Amino acid sequence: MFIAPPVLTGGLGLVTGTPQHAQVQECVDQLFQQCVRPMGSLIQIAGHNLARQRDKFGHILQDLAALQEEADKVDAYLHTISLQTDSGRSHLACLGTWVLLHTLRTMIQYLFSGFELSLYSIYEYHYIFWYLYEFLYGWLISAYNRADSFLTEHQSMTEYLKTKGKAPGATNKKGGQSGNGKNKKKKERSATARPYAKEIAYCQAVQSMCGGYYKAMVAMDLEGKIRRPRTEFDDERVRYEHRFAALGQVSTPPLVPYVQFKEMTKLEFNATDENDKASHASNLYATACRHFHHAATILTALTGQSNDENVLSLIRVCKTNCVVMRLLAGGHRREGASAPQFDFTVHPHLPIVKVT
User: What domain range includes position 274?
Assistant: First the structure.
């Protein structure tokens, strides 16, 4: 169970058969009936080709937006009920967090699919990675953290109630538990202390990688390595709004307008003369290197838990990019270098940066 909401774990303290219990059950049933279409579609689109999947993601976001509003209403209603009982547990944003998680993952998949389909030009990469780094992965990590905290609280309360209620298996005898039994129980508690620790760590690693790509793209743009279209045929605002238009169907998280994007990134592009640009670019490359190194450190720790091929591929990407960023920060290929190349053969979404 993703977040163990009180309404599904008996935490509301309602008596079965009462009118209030029937109302709550009907309310929750209606919500899950509304979940059938979008959640079923998320499974069905796996059978489509990439182009069709991307198109479907846009439609699913519409359904998820409506589902998010309904889940928030149900959470508010159930929270009011919880305040009237002795459960002692809040119900705010429980079901809503579950829907939000699927919404965020769909939005991220939508943006990443653009790389697989080669829809983005290189001069667009910076705001795609910026959006993933600054907003979507930040929101996703927050959703996992909330679920992690809520689930941990639920497990602690369950253990407390078992002890208080003298559940089967408990013992009140002096010395009734051996040292090995106590150690085993401590290990079990530590293993379940952070239910989503692995998911959170993975998201933090990918977020850090996206930050590294963003910093690297800005530095390359300052050095003139990124070939841009002629100004009379280009409008970055139009391109930005077109790329993120599908995300505007969702109210949570809200779409970041182009004006806000420019306001938040103006310091990154702020360099007056050539010397200032070179120094600023070197600092950005160094920052990108730290981002990739940080991601590699997190991912390497995850390999101790499982040998996931996806994680191993990302570690390879991080280590290679870290070396490239370190060289670029030191001034390698600063003058007369050709446009950078992005190799997606190791990972379909997060490429290896090559500068020749």
Answer: 205-227+237-354
